[in-house]
Amino acid sequence: MAKQHKKVADTRKDFHFKTAKSLLDKYDVVAVEKLNIKGLTKTRLAKSINDTGWSQFLTILSNKAENAGLKVIAVNPNGTSQECSNCGHKVQKQLSQRMHNCHVCHSSLCRDLNAAINIKNRGAHGLKAQFMSS
User: What does UniProt give as the signal peptide span (predicted)?
Assistant: First the structure.
């Protein structure tokens, strides 16, 4: 059983390294949600979070970016899936609701894509703020 666990852990770590490399080969800046991973491991999602190794991936990504002179920006995750990425209006939805439909600007897209656009925009704003203060 220990061999199987090691094999799974090694496979996961290899995937994390390859994914980090792929992202950093394509982008100079990567924005991620600043999640309380320890806190999330105490919720009903604990098994899924531990199985994917989020913390390990973020550590690998950050270390590789720093070594390459690139940036990883952690942004506030609050409301990324609720806020319309097109107009900024807050659109309440249940976790089971997979589409983002804004009744203000009529934007309609996958909830995860909407959140990803918001994370990208917050990352760009954070990068601009860092640049302006230096």
Answer: none
